[in-house]
């Protein structure tokens, strides 16, 4: 089934493209999103990533009108995992970015959105689902790094934000500290 995870609910997005030839998928990028901001459980995120959002349904949507974005995965507050893009393909989640000496993180990363708000905390079910998802991804790809959007696009993005517990994820995964952005040398990042 290619890069589709059998345990995730498939919700295919048209917003993707091919990865560059020879891309080494060794980075997982964590994001946070809720639409409207701070509201959880609704259909707006899935509609945004599938180009079906009613731009007039909420005043906030005027700020993002016309955006064509996606991530590979979305982890809801209850731990449900939704997949939008085949992990073998390039999703549109990172934007202008730079990490581990490489620009354009969309080219060689897997993007995971956590249902949440920058600065807010996340649910136990999300950490559990995220750790399991990261393990599945690492079985297929040579994952060596996990970073937040805030790490790969500093000054431009702030998610998942201070409410996300990197030590908690690290403990659940039991991966070496060097894999995690919060243990890396900040001078290794540059805004793209």
Helix-strand layout with pairing:
Layout: E1 9-10, E2 16-17, E3 27-33, H1 44-49, E4 73-75, E5 81-83, E6 90-91, E7 98-99, E8 102-103, E9 109-115, H2 124-140, E10 145-148, H3 149-152, H4 166-173
Parallel strand pairs: 1-5, 3-9, 3-10, 4-9
Antiparallel strand pairs: 2-6, 4-5, 7-8
Question: Can you walk me through this structure?
Answer:
The chain is of the alpha/beta class. The chain has one domain: Lysozyme-like (3-Layer(aba) Sandwich), CATH 3.40.80. The protein contains 4 helices and 10 strands. The strands form 3 sheets. A 6-stranded mixed beta sheet has the order 1-5-4-9-3-10. Helix 2 (124-140) crosses helix 4. It is globular.
State the CATH superfamily name.
Answer: Peptidoglycan recognition protein-like
Q: Helix/strand-derived class?
A: alpha/beta
Mean pLDDT: 93
Low-confidence stretches: 185-192
Q: Taking Cα atoms only, what radius of gyration do you get, to the nearest Å?
A: 15 Å
Biggest sheet: strand arrangement: 1-5-4-9-3-10
Order of helices and strands: EEEHEEEEEEHEHH
Shape: globular
- Biggest beta-sheet profile: 6 strands, mixed
CATH topology: Lysozyme-like
User: Can you tell me the CATH class?
Assistant: Alpha Beta
Helicity level, as a percent range?
10-25%
Number of helices: 4
Residue fraction in strands: 15-25%
CATH architecture: 3-Layer(aba) Sandwich
Tell me the count of domains.
Answer: 1
Q: Span between N and C termini?
A: 33 Å
- Total beta strand runs: 10
